[in-house]
Amino acid sequence: MITNIYKIFFLVILFLYQTSVLSKTTDEKDFNLKYLSNYLSAKISYSNQNNEDSVKYFNSSKSIINKHEGYLKEYVFALVLNGEIQKAINQIKLNKDLASSDFFEADLLLLIGNFKNKKFKKNLELLNNIKRFQNQSRYNYIIYETLYSYNDLFLNKILKINSNKNFGKLTIINNALQFCYLNKPETKSKFINLINSKEGDYSRYLFFYLNYIISNDEIDSAIQISQTIDEIGNNLLISQSKTWIKDSNYNKIKEIFSCQRESDLISEFFFLISNFYLINEDFEKSNFYLNLSNYLNPKFYFNLTHLVENYLENENYNIAKSLLNKFDKKDLVYYWYKLKKIAQIISKEQNSQQSLNYIEKKFNNYSDPSLKMLFDMGNIYKKNNEFKKSIKLYSLVLKKLDKSSDSYAEILYRRGGSHERVGDYLNSDKDLIKSLSMKPDDPYVMNYLAYGWLERNYKIDEAVVMLNKAYQKKKNDPYIIDSVGWGHYLIEDYVNAEKFLQKAIELMPKDPIVNDHYGDVLWKLNRKLQAKYYWESAFNSGEANDELKENISIKLLKGF
Cβ distance 435 to 447 under 8 Å? Predict the structure, then answer.
């Protein structure tokens, strides 16, 4: 028994040494089994994104924090990820000597504390410390240079444009926000150029433009702009802004952000950094910077939706739900977002029917739901194969929506798909063709319409032409590739059919329809053994419906 304990103790010590928790000056008496157990529990909770538990266990083994820099770093990260930024800052201050040469975030957090408290002169030394990290990564370099420029701006109230420091999208955004901070006459044009840029999606910054003109009492201009906003096709922030303006709730827009508040500007910068990490699927760093952003501007809690999405992506539903609880009925767009996400969690934790029951009950509580709510509910019904209900809601949206809206063609497309699924091909074709007339050459609409024709053995040659056209627009879309291949199969061009369907198989190896199609063309090419292999794959996929399984079973038995 005693031998086993010593073995465990040795393994734990070895583990800690390998993870750089122990420094060269470690005193072994600092470590007993209780501390080690708590530390390992903290590590496990941390890796599982159980932030609250990780902090709890770290706190239970804090007696060693003053001696081990690796421990400090992990503890600070856990605190930040749990939203306890001020506590993280305090820990760094208490253990400043442990902030080693590789602890970039230590000085960064101290910087943030100073930004929040307007202690910009104190940041000069910290910025000099951080400078040593700028060559470690592209993001470190961007963070240092951007924070340096902002600190200089806040101290001297002078805008300094350095063309040599071009960080693409970030530079354009920071430039507009810095002009806004100084309330320069060019601010409007900076925002307008940003919003209208063709080099990326800057729609979020319509909010900041509205915020700026409302803060300058240009209410009429804000109303005019809001009337042009498509509440269906825009992001949550813009849609909510439209609702606030419609309700004359201008104070809400001014309350959550001001480009004259230094900490708000730094908050937006870290929000952008978080998004860059998210693109690279580095969820830990993304959440880290999102929490910093929220600390600097807690009133802009709508940014928490990005934290929600990160935790949902990693199936951490408890944290996601706790974040969603921050959204209430006062802000309808975000509250509806909350209800949809809870429904999504119910679907994952229970089943799709329970999820549908939940969101349907919540939706029915609204006597006058918004267009966005009607549209979303239509999509939910469609996803759950309640096609007649989805048609009804799409029709309501189309009746209320301006035909010039960018979303009009999209809704026709979706309603056309629902008509097709209930066998109403006349209305399906009508909607899809009308959608195409509004947005010519839309590859997804062309694919849906043309594939429907193939399935009905209708206008085959025209469908193939349309599918080839869709393929030229989206050459890597597996569904379009499958449709093109199947079209060639139906006109007995088996060589080209095989070429396209092979590519579709590579992109969607488990899709039962694609496997079935590929099996059919292989059979026609007299590669019968291979054909049966793909038919069997389709049959056993777990996603094949009963009708498909029945057809495949006949082919496996008799062939063609």
Answer: no
pTM of structure: 0.84
Helices (H) and strands (E) in the chain, counts: 31, 0
- pLDDT greater than 80 at residue 46: no
Q: Which two tokens stand for residue 72?
A: 């400090």
Report the b/e string of 161-183 with b at 16+ CB within 10 A: eeeebeeebbbbbbbbbbbbbee
Residue 13 neighbours by CB distance under 10 Å = 16
> CA 329, 334, 337, 342 torsion: positive or negative?
negative
Report the phi/psi class of residue 248: left, alpha or beta, with left for phi > 0 and alpha for psi in -120 to 50: left
- The tokens for 466 are 């349309």
Burial 312-328 (b: 16+ CB within 10 A, else e): beeebbebbbebbeebe
In Å, how far are 239, 257, 325, 328 from 302, measured between CA atoms? 12, 11, 12, 11
Domains of the chain and CATH, by start: 2-100 (1.25.40), 184-259 (no CATH), 474-560 (1.25.40.10)
The residue whose two tokens read 């929000």 is: 271
d(CA 270, CA 290): 7
Which one-letter amino acid corresponds to residue 77?
F
Surface-to-core class of residue 473, CB atoms within 10 Å of its CB (0-12 exposed, 13-18 middle, 19+ buried): middle
DSSP state of 161: -
Residue 60 is predicted with a pLDDT of 58
- Nearest CA to 548 out of 526, 534, 482 is that of 534
Count the alpha carbons within 13 Å of 239 in the hemisphere toward its beta carbon: 19
555-to-314, 498, 545 alpha-carbon distances in Å:
41, 18, 16
Output the pLDDT for position 104.
87
Query: Which residue has tokens 């104070």?
Result: 251
Q: How many C-beta neighbours within 10 Å does residue 366 have?
A: 13
**Residue type for 74, please?**
E
d(C-alpha 175, C-alpha 149), whole Å: 10
**100 pLDDT higher than 80:** no
Q: Are 53 and 35 in contact (CB under 8 A)?
A: no
Q: What mean pLDDT is predicted for residues 6-34? A: 46
Structure tokens at 437: 């007339």
